[in-house]
Amino acid sequence: MDFHGSAPRASIGAFPQTRMRRNRRHQWLRRLVAENRLGVEDLIWPIFVVEGEGKRQPVASMPGVDRLSVDLLADAVGEAGDLGIPAVAVFPYMAQKLKTPDAREALNPDNLVCRAVHAIKESQPGVGVICDAALDPYNSDGHDGLVRDGDVLNDETIEALQRQAVVQAEAGCDVIAPSDMMDGRVGAIRKALDEAGFEHVAILSYAAKFASAFYGPFRDAVGSKPALKGDKKTYQMNPANGDEALREAALDIAEGADMVIVKPGLPYLDIIHRVKTAFGVPTFAYSVSGEYAMLKAAAEVGRLDYEASLMEILMSFKRAGANGVLTYAALDAARLLKDAES
Ligand code: PBG
Q1: Given ligand 1 and candidates 176, 218, 326, which is best to mutate, with the most ligand atoms within 8 Å of its CB?
Q2: Structural domain span for residue 125
Q3: Domain holding 145: CATH number?
Q4: How many domains does the chain fold into?
Q5: Mutational pocket test of ligand 1: of 113, 143, 144, the residue with most ligand atoms within 8 Å of the beta carbon
Q6: Would you call 67 helix, strand, or coil by DSSP?
Q7: 95 part of a folded domain
Q8: Residue 86 CA, ligand 1 centroid: distance in Å
Q9: Do the beta carbons of residue 72 and residue 52 sit within 8 Å?
């Protein structure tokens, strides 16, 4: 039975005829009446890449998460693929000297992300590869767009994103994920991809991306924190707004987004539910770096059971209506799901 937003259809009798606990009495029965399921096919694993060889650099604020050099990606993504994880999302840690005000390294067909995509597609062609379209790893201002006189420019940024998307598609990327929140970028990227012959490359739009404190550890992981001047509130959404998230999603879908992301995840379950209910498009939660760090920190000091809390959080996204979740704990979750099967 689907309770999403609608009133229960069965009439509800009163105690003692009705005892809700009856359906909870046995494990087999709890399994039988479960309304939602979490499977390994629901997981997208975000990974961080770094220049060099044989490099595995722990991200201090995200225990258990490493930046990997390109040569180590085949094995890491191979493990994910073997576990049944459908896709990975690739994020670059860029050397400071490659960050410029025009973010030109984003457009270099031989940049770190493109080489990473190439390596993954070569060794693991069956695993989907998702790349962010946004300039922040490459921009000496740390912003997702180009900056002039303190303003994050919209239309000029879109031109750069179009080229960035095409360069990533040329490298073999399957899905472009615009995470920049510029207006009109989804339509522009769709047009650029189509004109370059990449009409089969999908767009997974960060449709509702909030200006969140929970991105802190990610900015550590990609090294954009020291660069960032100010905050991202002129393009990322105000956490107070829900109706606006629906307008954002509607626009992105109209412009050609194949799938949408709500980000962060846990503090925005209501948004996931509303977007999925309103549009019925494939909708993903991004359980961001701060959510991961928060759970890890609590588990490390013995305040929470990591595994049980993780699985409960992931299930909450499914219950809210998400088709899947981007999570740094994807490998942990996949292993737990596998153990539960055997
Ligand atoms: C940047 C980008 C961010 C994340 C994904 N892409 C950070 C930001 O907007 O500052 C956040 C991911 C996370 O916190 O896990 N375009």
Answers
A1: 218
A2: 42-341
A3: 3.20.20.70
A4: 1
A5: 144
A6: strand
A7: yes
A8: 21
A9: no
